[in-house]
Amino acid sequence: MYCIGLTGSIASGKSTVSRIFKEQGITVISADEAARELTARNQPALASIEQHFGQSVISPTGELDRCALREKIFKEPQQRIWLEQLLHPMIRQYIRDKVSQSESPYTIIEIPLLNKRSDYPYLDRVLLILAEREQQIQRVILRDNSSRKQAMAILATQINDELRKTFADDVIYNNCSMAELEKKIAILHSQYLQFASQKS
Predict the structure, then answer these.
(1) How is residue 119 annotated by DSSP?
(2) Which residues have a Cβ under 8 Å from the Cβ of 200 and sit 6 or more positions away?
(3) Rounded to whole angstroms, how far apart are CA atoms 170 and 123?
(4) What is the rounded average pLDDT of the residues 137-161?
(5) CA 54 to CA 104: how far, in whole Å?
(6) Strand order in 170-173's β-sheet?
(7) Whole-model pTM?
(8) What's the mean pLDDT when you consider all of the chain?
């Protein structure tokens, strides 16, 4: 299976790009969706999180309180490292399983926290989505109903875009209209179909 890693900072437009690929009939696997499934109620990962962080990150219905957990890991960066060490191996295995089930010509894997290709050695290409910082701040404020200070703190924890550029094969600047973005994706889609057919 020909695999493309889709990455970019928070609120850069990855979900929109994923949707456009889906509309072309391409399988899109999301690392964020994997994390949500793996930390769902009664899942082993949730039990480990509760044991480590305590009841304060568990809702009254027994589900993960993502807002409370996010507050903790932003205040204490070492806790974010612990959480990543717990979840990332599980997420990588989940993605491998989903890739093996994909039946589209190629597969897009949305990985927000992709910071080196060696974590996903089967990726054939990496597509990076970039957006203006102010645009990202406004999107986070609207999406999460957060303050500007909170939005900027979230963005400050993101991998540097310059680092991402060093291992990206394709870069899309999401600073245009939806029609223009769709044109950019259409060009990449044609290229990816060609690359996938050559690999097979």
Answers:
(1) G
(2) 2
(3) 13
(4) 78
(5) 42
(6) 27-30, 106-110, 2-7, 125-130, 170-173
(7) 0.84
(8) 90
d(CA 46, CA 64): 7
Query: What does the pLDDT look like over 32-48, one tens digit per residue?
Result: 999 999 999 989 999 99
Cβ-in-10-Å burial (0-12, 13-18, 19+) of 142 comes to: exposed
Task: Compute CA distances 123 → 18, 113, 187, whole Å.
Answer: 16, 14, 20
Helices (H), the chain: 14-23, 31-38, 44-53, 66-75, 77-101, 133-144, 148-156, 161-167, 178-199
List C-alpha distances in Å: 129 to 17, 31, 89, 120, 179: 8, 16, 24, 18, 16
Could you tell me how far CA 117 lies from the centroid of its own chain? 14
